[in-house]
């Protein structure tokens, strides 16, 4: 793994497309990282910048709008959320299409499920399939416990989890924050079979490859580099698609962790401290 800087990495390669993770690379709970806004402005002039995110709390239009309010211009069509995989991946679409769906998440996240053509959105007790997209702002723990109890007695209901992220690092060097993927782990330990969509799973890598080809008319291995603060995400996506990968070390999940075990396997090609010039 080559330790470098963003400017040096780009000047020594002929990339045309940059796949960039969001939380931990561009911002955290405190806001956009210093230098990020200027970096995206510069990169947008030369490269195709595509946001690659497990965020299914918001639809791509809301994500784009929120970024714009913070000075980052990435249009909705250049955002590939794991939620898009629910309609693009044939296995997930088949689980949702013409089914009654209960969504544990936000109203905005329902747009991803709508693309898969459900028969209707319904209550948990009438659902053919359950899709979990985001933690709830109010009463999350109580409502999740209700969900766990119900699924324990209805083991044949398919459960889809569209955001595998278990933790984010919102406070720099301080404690990790549990997010929606953490709760999927609780379900799995209870014996519920969960169908995962998102980084680092192969199904999402295949969705990314499909979108790059159909929406942007590019082959996924031609001049593409992926930036993420989660080393497992970088390793999986780059190996699956045959693209370049860069770990962003100091602004997200990788800060302070021991990377030696990963370096013995198949590490990312590059490593930068932060996504800025």
What this model shows, in words?
It is built from eleven helices and 16 strands. The model has no long low-confidence stretch (mean pLDDT 91). 43% of the residues are buried. The protein has a seven-stranded parallel beta sheet with strand order 1-16-15-14-2-5-6, with helices on both faces. A five-stranded parallel beta sheet has the order 8-7-9-10-13, sandwiched between helices. With 277 residues, it is α/β, with parallel strands linked by helices. The protein folds into two domains: 155 residues, HAD superfamily/HAD-like (Rossmann fold, 3-Layer(aba) Sandwich), CATH 3.40.50.1000; 108 residues, 3-Layer(aba) Sandwich (Rossmann fold). Strand 7, helix 6 and strand 8 form a beta-alpha-beta unit.
General shape:
globular
Query: Into which percentage range does the β-strand content fall?
Result: 15-25%
The CATH topology of the largest domain is given as Rossmann fold
Strands of the widest sheet, in order across it, are 1-16-15-14-2-5-6
Order of helices and strands: EHEEEHEHEHHEHEEHEEEHEHEHEHE
Radius of gyration: 19 Å
How many helices? The count is: 11
Query: Considering DSSP H and I runs of 4 or more, what fraction of the residues is helical?
Result: 25-40%
CATH architecture label of the largest domain: 3-Layer(aba) Sandwich
Overall structural class, as computed from helix and strand content, comes to alpha/beta
Distance between the termini: 20 Å
